[in-house]
Amino acid sequence: MDLRHDPYALAHTAAAQLTARAGVDKFDIAIVLGSGWQQAAETLAPIDCEIPTSDLPGFHAPSVQGHKGRIMSIEFAGKRIALVAGRVHLYEGHPTADVVHPVRTVIAAGAETVILTNAAGGIDPNRGPGTMMLISDHINLTATSPMEGASPPENYGSRFVDLSDVYSRETRAAIRQVRPDLTEGVYVGFRGPHYETPAEIKMAKAMGGDLVGMSTVLEAIAARHLGARVIGFSLVTNLAAGVSPTPLNHLEVLEAGQKAAAGMADLFRDILPCL
Fold first, then answer.
1. What architecture does CATH give domain 3-274?
2. Is the dihedral of CA 54, 228, 96, 187 positive or negative?
3. Cβ neighbours of residue 67 under 8 Å, at least 6 residues apart?
4. What are the Cα distances from residue 252, in Å, to 68, 69, 72, 90, 223?
5. Could you point out which of 34, 55, 65, 232 has its C-alpha 20 to 30 Å from the C-alpha of 174?
6. DSSP character string of 46-88
7. What's the pLDDT score for residue 67?
């Protein structure tokens, strides 16, 4: 079988190698680490195993500063967790199937809950840099979907995925019980890699958006198609174009993540036991 033409079989092949390398039967939770989130996640528990994603079928090396391709295995709150570092993006020239391959892999490796994290631009000036927000919903402006192309194999659900509850409403309510300080927002996914124009930010706000970024939405769709429970967190690292009084740059994103690392680690410690 040519796995390049069957992304689901490719994910299962990668998952088998991942669990074997990690020495575990399966993972319970996977956390995809966006810009700035990795340092926080690594403080949760000792890393039992670290697998370079270049060793796994179907993975690409990320080209974005602050992203290093590896999957770390830890145990926390009685759960086996895969920390996925080194997200790849559409704007790096990868096809959609490759962008969502890490998420499909960790779900094939047993993860029933996928936590997607990202660094985002904030549209609301009252929720500025350093604000952590739960993603309540998203708007996909990438002009693509992981469900495009051939129909999924027989054992998988329809390509017409129900997205009425992408970011689990029930789980968000449980998280707010332990972290009532968290606010929610709608994440607007652009293709990138350039930052948005002020006019595009006005459009996103008019559409109901609170956050803008260049990841997450495709991964969320792929995860829901496979039946995983999805949770999303954004760290506001900068105010969006037209809201920010200063020009935008990626170093600002990385610096904001470093400053917020302790707070993000506390967030993980608080919410993981209730999942």
1. 3-Layer(aba) Sandwich (3.40)
2. negative
3. 35, 85, 86, 87, 88
4. 18, 22, 26, 22, 30
5. 34
6. ---EEEEGGGSTT-----STT---EEEEEEETTEEEEEEE---
7. 55
C-alpha span between 138 and 12 (Å, rounded): 28
Position 248 scores a pLDDT of: 66
Residues 206-211 have a mean pLDDT of 98
Q: What is the pLDDT of residue 68?
A: 72
DSSP 8-state secondary structure symbol assigned to residue 224: H
Domain range annotation of the chain:
3-274
- Check if 196 is active-site: yes
Report how far residue 57's alpha carbon sits from residue 80's, in angstroms, rounded to the nearest whole number: 22
Bridge-partner residues for 133, per DSSP?
A: 183, 234
Q: What confidence tens digit (pLDDT) does each residue in 106-148 have?
A: 999 999 999 999 999 999 999 988 899 999 999 999 999 999 9
Q: How far apart are CA 189 and CA 131, in angstroms?
A: 18
**Residue 86 in contact with residue 106, Cβ under 8 Å?**
no
Q: What is the pLDDT of residues 6-53, one digit of tens each?
A: 999 999 999 999 999 999 999 999 999 998 888 888 899 999 999 999
Specify the residue for token string 């606010």: 183
The model's pTM is 0.94
Q: What gap in Å lies between CA 86 and CA 80, rounded to an integer?
A: 20
Does the structure show a pLDDT above 70 at 268? yes
Helix (H) or strand (E) holding 229: strand 229-239
